[in-house]
């Protein structure tokens, strides 16, 4: 059975764990939690991998209609995410159209979510690396709004800061909603998921 590859973008290691740039990792971790499954680091894959299945009942479901899902957290740094994604696509036989990339988005306010297929990388180095490695931008994106930096702070510095403690509760809700959006995209298709989750 063909698989869907759900890639969370982020930087590996505890230093980066709660940075705005790591919301992709956070969403993919939530999907693995729902499945009751853990990540492994297969030799040569350059990523942490979690294999599970998705049904109308949710992640980790079983049955004839279960969709095979591969959750991916690149162990390369953000700027080289494409190397890990291309390797995982080749290993699991996944085409770009069955890839879903979850990433932070400066151009959306915190609390907003946008699903799309294809498009440019909008200055996001993780997306740029994946486009280059796959030879196309025609993969799905779940864009998690983090907003623009305050004052004159450089976007490159802003994405490498933690969410404020005051936003923790809302962040948890947005991670949950983004995980729901990934499930809906795979189960119901892009348009139906956009109608529900695009804000």
UniProtKB/TrEMBL annotation:
InterPro entries the UniProt entry points to: Pept_tRNA_hydro, Pept_tRNA_hydro_CS, Pept_tRNA_hydro_sf
CDD domains, sorted: PTH
GO BP term, example: protein quality control for misfolded or incompletely synthesized proteins
Active site per the UniProt annotation: 21 (proton acceptor)
Alphabetical UniProt keywords: Cytoplasm, Hydrolase, RNA-binding, tRNA-binding
GO cellular component: cytoplasm
Gene3D superfamilies assigned to the protein according to its UniProt record, in alphabetical order: Peptidyl-tRNA hydrolase (3.40.50.1470)
Positions with a binding annotation for tRNA: 16, 77, 79, 125
Protein name: Peptidyl-tRNA hydrolase
Native source organism of the sequence: Micropruina glycogenica
Lineage: Bacteria, Bacillati, Actinomycetota, Actinomycetes, Propionibacteriales
């Amino acid at each position: 059975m063909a698989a869907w590859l759900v890639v969370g973008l982020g930087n590996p290691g505890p230093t980066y764990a709660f940075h705005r740039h790591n919301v992709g990792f956070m969403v993919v971790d939530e999907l693995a939690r729902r499945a009751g499954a853990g990540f492994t680091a297969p030799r040569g894959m350059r990523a942490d991998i979690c294999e599970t299945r998705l049904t109308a009942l949710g992640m980790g479901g079983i049955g004839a209609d279960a969709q095979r899902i591969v959750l991916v957290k690149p162990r390369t740094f953000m700027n080289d995410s494409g190397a890990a994604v291309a390797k995982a696509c080749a290993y699991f036989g996944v085409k770009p159209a069955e890839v879903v990339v979850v990433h932070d988005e400066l151009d959306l306010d915190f609390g907003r979510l946008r699903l799309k297929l294809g498009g440019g990388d909008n200055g996001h180095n993780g997306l740029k690396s994946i486009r280059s490695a796959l030879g196309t931008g025609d993969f799905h994106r779940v864009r998690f709004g983090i907003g623009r930096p305050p004052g004159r702070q450089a976007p490159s510095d802003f994405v490498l800061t933690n969410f404020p403690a005051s936003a923790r509760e809302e962040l948890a809700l947005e991670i949950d909603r983004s995980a729901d959006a990934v499930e809906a995209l795979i189960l119901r298709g892009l348009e139906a998921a956009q109608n529900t989750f695009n804000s």
